Amino acid sequence: MATTSPWLAAARQRLWARDSFSFIPDRRFDEPPTTITPGDGPRVAFCGFPSDYSLAFLFALLDLDVCPAAILTSPGAHPAIVGTNAMSQVADHIGLPLLRPWRINDEHARLDLARLDLDAVVMASFDQIVGARALAIPRHGWLNVHPSPLPHYRGPEPIYWTIADGATEAGITLHRAVPRFDAGPIFAQATLTPSPEDTAGTLTRRLCAAGVDLLGDALAALLADAPGVEPDLSQASYRPSVGHRRLETADGAVAAERMVRAGVPNMPAWTELDGRAVYVVRARVAADCSGDGSIGCLRFSDGCLVIEEAMEACGCHHDQPDCPHRDLVEPVA
What we know:
The protein is of the alpha/beta class. About 25% of the residues lie in helices and about 20% in strands. The chain folds into two domains: about 5-235, Rossmann fold (3-Layer(aba) Sandwich); about 245-330, Methionyl-tRNA Fmet Formyltransferase, Chain A, domain 2 (Roll).
């Protein structure tokens, strides 16, 4: 039996009304009413964040015939996680334990997991690597939801790199989590073609829509201890985390425009306009810097990047003008 209520239905509708999904874990809903009774079935915990991406799969899990047993999250990812947020509100509404381990692999965290008597865990975005001993606690293991067509784009920010690289295929993969990063047997996968207008936010929403349709079958395969399909890691690619990349580091105007779209809304690219740093959220490629709607222009060998919209704060986890994520970017010579 699924776990349902009018409040959950309204929260899910509010989520899917967005045309762009964020990984920033700061979502919050209206306060839920009194606690409801969870559904019946295998005992499954959810691991993720109060972000659009994670919440899409949490709501999809609650629609399945499972008994939601707990919600796990990581308090170091964002200040909102230690207080009231969308995920804590869902936990309160259903009467679920909410675990916020700083280190998921520590003994006390593993003891907390073991007390839940879990059949499985569904994980959709988490900032900690789950080790072998924690992965072995649920009877049937962990199902991870990774937003790329594995084995391509292993790593923490595949949607960013899919757009920034100009890849012709995006995907979402549901696979058994193993101690090696994004390397477990695959139970389900969907692919789609990125649009030239896609930002990371619009592409994330489209991938989530494809992924939630696969969750039921993938979780059933995990619970049945199905072998899945081993990915060919000889064909794998890996891309690292990114900070706010400076637009001048792009190879050209076309690459810079992709960098802008890849950064929206989670990690916008930046440049300097009139001597101050700004985060660019909309730009276009042009032959020159003339034309309406421009607030700035960067010249490259293959044309110009016309900046149409920018903001002084980054809008990411830190949301401040001098965001420390910019420290990850090599300075322009």
